[in-house]
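From the shared-data thread, chain only:
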Amino acid sequence: MTHAPSQELTMRIIQPHDLPAAARALEDGKLVVVPTSRWYMICADASDAEACGRIFQSKQRPTSKPLALVTPSLTSCEQTFRLTSEARLLAEAFWPGDLALMLPWREPERAARMTAVGSPALVTMAPGVLGGLAALARVPLAATTINVSGNAGPDDPGPAITLDDVREFLSATGLEVALAIDGGTCPAANHMTIVDCFTAKASLIRTGLVHQRALSTALGRDIPAA
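Structure, as tokens:
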């Protein structure tokens, strides 16, 4: 495709120790590719509607399916969102980790500045490189998997787990990415678990790496399967 040569030229590959370069790119309104144990993720400034819009467009993802917001700390999360007692139990048990919580904003004005992550917002505190970038960047970090949205067919391998997968997606979509952090192959190839904590009683939305039984143990009660 005609997009492929330009993507090869513009996407710089850096190592995990060079997080300041990735943080600067986000602060400049650019997109960054970041590895996790699960998948490679496309990241943007969550308050930059134009940057996030490029992600939605490339993934053919409706804006009704928001991006995840990566909080740098539980303290920061509590300052921005309202956490029920069950939400706090889950965050304390599994963050940083492969769990995302749907949380209500404390201030509607702040939600209005970050429409890409939705209301309620899908919030996670990530381990590893993604968590380090969220802590370092001076802008809120939105992230999503690198793949086209929609129902996966039987031959769809799923989101990107290697930089070659990332390049294939960029070539197919023409999405411009400033740089990618090399994390090798993502070993888990599985999703985050998602729990709805908008109301007092948490409910499981999607099962992923954090098992239903682990959630039930943390809550001290059975949480039904999604």
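The chain has a mean pLDDT of 93.
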